[in-house]
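Entry type: protein chain
Record version: 2
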Amino acid sequence: MNLVRAAATVGSLTLASRILGFVRDLLIAAILGAAAAADAFFVAFKLANMLRRLFAEGAFNAGFVPLFARTLEQEGKEPARTFAGHAFAVMSVVLAMVVAAAELAMPALVRVLATGFAPGSERYALAVELSRLTFPYLMLISLAALVSGVLNGLGRFAAAAFAPILLNLVLIAALAVAVLSGSSAAHLLAAGVLVAGFLQLGMLLSAARGAGFPLVPRWPRGPERARLLRLWRLVLPGALGAGVYQLNLVIDTWFASHLPTGAVSYLFYADRLVQLPLGLIGVALGTALLPLLARQLRSGRGDAARHNFDRALELALLLSLPAAVGLGTLAGPIVSVLFERGAFDRAASEATAAALAAFASGLPAFVLVKVLATGFFAREDTRTPVFVAALCLLANVAVILATIGRLGHVGIALATAAANWLNAGLLAWLLARRGTLEPSPRLRRRAVRLLLVNLGLALALWAVARFLPASATVLGLGLVIASAAVLYLLAVQLCGAGSLEELRAALARRGGEAAPAA
């Protein structure tokens, strides 16, 4: 398995998904704007996604992928397939009970998530109704995430990375139907979320079958339960850690719901823009790195694991720093070009741009967290990140309380950025203390040069942004971004902060792993 090729596969499909996601969000902004229906849908969508990350991506995969990789490496395909079938069966039962309980308690859940939505108000009633439509998506997409973990453990990343594209296609189709039929766009979007869940799970199950790993749900019995108990011992601490992270999102929404109408939507649209580089870089690297590290560590290839970890950190800095600089300095023109039309007016554009600039300041940290966390998960340590996440939760609340009075929704975005930097710093410090993180001379040297290059990029883009008109076109903004990207790559090459030849060679290498660099 090649780290760069795997990350490129995940990243390219994630890019396609994010582009479709932008099209989806542009349509939502134009049709729903930042009004009550938009706030209600975003709360409903966030509730299902929040618990999806808690039960699936945030906790289950952190415990499942290393254990699956170890079973596959040490025992072979059949025991690994049996283990996956047991996990599928148990997870199905647990999630079915969670969904049933949540449907009954939905008014209370919405009240907790968005306490600013007064009971009896239009936003509250609509949020409850839409949440009941979207919530079964939790079960479907969590099972899909398990199947994705199986495929990633086998070194097959394309199908899992393609699955989010289906969600965006279905939601775009739902919006088209709403416009043509005059039906409620918010209700059709919520129903589309559920339909997409069925499609994603079906596609991934088919991909697993094609990879020679058909998943047959089997209830574990006797000695077979030992591995499942080990899995849940890993998952539960991970769930606590993921729960703390998701609680951060709840806290952000809770504070935003007490601000004037539109605050929830401003933060949502800004976060969507930040999710593009995060998914393209951080999620791609973390997804590719976790099974690779787990298998290398289980087979005693510690030097190769350290090299790949080092390489992932270098790629994270190389790609995330300019993304943060670009989003931060060009926030106004980016939001204006992408969203300012229809129901999304100039005031909404300026409010969203301010949130985007604040979010962007924490983007490199969030990407680094995705990479650094694999250093714990690959060693089947899901507990340590819990304590780190808890400290970051307290920091998030403290910064919100200190800034929301003066900065409103922008203070919430700044708090998220600060918490991300604290998280990355603590994870790196703990890994270094354990001897797991030992940056090579090359990584240290290139990191310093990358910081200098990006400082120059920030100054140049700041100067350009001052002359960009408020009514900048897609073409004009695209030319600015493309020119900045070319100049950045040239500067990186000239000052020795990175090597385009190394990237090309890594992408061309089909199998095996690069030898550690001196």
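Comment: Confidence is low (pLDDT under 50) at residues 510-518.
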